[in-house]
Inverse folding.
């Protein structure tokens, strides 16, 4: 049994029955049968359906957005943007998938030699609650356009979103079983991976979950893509536009109420401008409104679950116990729901959770660096490597730092880190491996086959 619970009030919204092992096996078998014919369809046929999926999303965007708000507390304007972004990734791959997967001719002594791309089959997606529609469509749009089938094991607290996504593909006219949701707990994922009909696995989630799924997939010799946590550093150099930098940093820290792998986490500021940046940053964080996620004026809502809020607060308390100074927030409000205020910690040092761990909520860690070189060293002093940003008036220098010095999969100059269907997305280290989106993402779950004709 799964429950959807409103994080603003704690009220139970809906309950969903779990699939038993027989139902799970039946769904996997049905999906495999659907894939046999789906893999033979043309790109034009798949594209027509994927465009219809985009239409379904736009036509029902208010309902899908409200579902996200109710199940995980996302501010409604951000939820609407998420649905629209899902439609855009459907449209992107509907338009470009065929070109991304066309045969590549290679000049050799053969009469013909080339690379061709064949779909693997069923791809299992283990997805998180924080972007309950986008994370799924980021995987599903390229996977289905490539001729694969999809099985979704979504987070238990957003099961309504999971069922709604399955419904999107059905309304668009996709084969009934080409994309299915498995209503199972995390402990049963290993059994799905062991099923020989499942050919690959993609996961977005915690390091612990990624390690467990990667281990089981490795035992079964199945391809995986892992998009895990992040503790993204934002470097503010001496010549940066501090007003613009502070505003961008605050915006990034509070996206999705701070619950984003690529939200800014650690703000590393060189000594010369640290005090001014700190003042601007605290003022801007303080001005942001925490409130009803259905209110358009709300900047950030509750955390997705009270247990997650409590874990975040414990990280804040432990950091303060070790010497961090709390400049803003840092307390649990006395009200129902999973609320946590915008919080700013300064004097953050190694050994504190705010330095060493991912803070998955509206908590910012301000770190003073001696100079540019020290800022880069601090940024790279992390097991994570998902995103990073640099703020400087010297764009050429910022570009060089982004390209050569920072250990991350996505590096931005004078802007906050974001995902875009046109660009590859993923990390290194404890942030995972493999890439989603762009032409690279659609090729992850393909048999990249060499063909040689003498």
């Amino acid at each position: 049994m799964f429950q959807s619970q409103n994080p603003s009030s704690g009220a139970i919204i809906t309950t969903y029955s779990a699939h038993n092992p027989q139902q799970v096996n039946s769904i996997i078998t049905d999906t495999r049968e659907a894939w046999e014919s789906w893999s033979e369809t043309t790109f034009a046929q798949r594209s027509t359906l994927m465009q219809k999926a985009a239409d379904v999303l736009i036509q029902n965007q208010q309902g899908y957005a409200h579902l996200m708000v109710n199940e995980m507390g996302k501010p409604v304007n951000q939820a609407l943007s998420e649905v629209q972004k899902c439609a855009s990734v459907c449209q992107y791959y509907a338009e470009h998938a065929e070109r991304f997967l066309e045969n590549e001719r290679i000049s050799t002594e053969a009469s013909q030699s080339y690379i061709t791309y064949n779909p693997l089959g069923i791809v299992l997606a283990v997805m998180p609650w924080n972007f309950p529609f986008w994370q799924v469509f980021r995987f599903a749009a390229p996977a289905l356009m490539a001729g694969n089938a999809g099985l979704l094991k979504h987070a238990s607290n957003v099961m309504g979103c999971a069922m709604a996504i399955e419904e999107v593909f059905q309304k668009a006219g996709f084969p009934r079983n080409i994309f299915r949701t498995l209503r199972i707990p995390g402990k049963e994922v290993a059994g799905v991976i062991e099923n020989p009909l499942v050919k690959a696995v993609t996961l977005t989630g915690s390091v612990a979950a990624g390690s467990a799924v990667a281990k089981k997939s490795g035992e079964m010799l199945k391809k995986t893509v892992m998009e895990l946590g992040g503790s993204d550093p934002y470097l503010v150099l001496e010549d940066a536009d501090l007003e613009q930098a502070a505003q961008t940093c605050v915006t990034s820290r509070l996206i999705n109420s701070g619950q984003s792998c690529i939200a800014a986490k650690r703000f590393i500021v060189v000594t010369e401008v640290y005090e001014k940046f700190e003042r601007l940053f605290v003022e801007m964080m303080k001005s942001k409104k925490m409130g009803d996620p259905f209110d358009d004026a709300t900047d950030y809502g509750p955390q997705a679950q009270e247990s997650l809020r409590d874990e975040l607060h414990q990280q804040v308390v432990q950091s303060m116990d070790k010497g961090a100074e709390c400049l803003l927030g840092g307390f649990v409000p006395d009200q129902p729901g999973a609320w946590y205020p915008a919080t700013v910690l300064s004097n953050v040092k190694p050994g504190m959770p705010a330095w060493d761990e991912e803070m998955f909520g509206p908590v910012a860690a301000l770190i003073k660096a001696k100079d540019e070189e020290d800022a880069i060293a601090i940024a790279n002093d992390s097991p994570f490597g998902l995103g990073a940003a640099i703020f400087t008036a010297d764009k050429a220098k910022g570009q060089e730092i982004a390209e050569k010095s920072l250990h991350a999969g996505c590096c931005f100059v004078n802007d906050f880190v974001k995902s875009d269907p046109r660009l590859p997305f993923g990390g290194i280290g404890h942030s995972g491996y493999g890439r989603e989106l762009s032409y690279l993402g659609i090729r992850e779950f393909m048999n990249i086959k060499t063909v040689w004709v003498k």
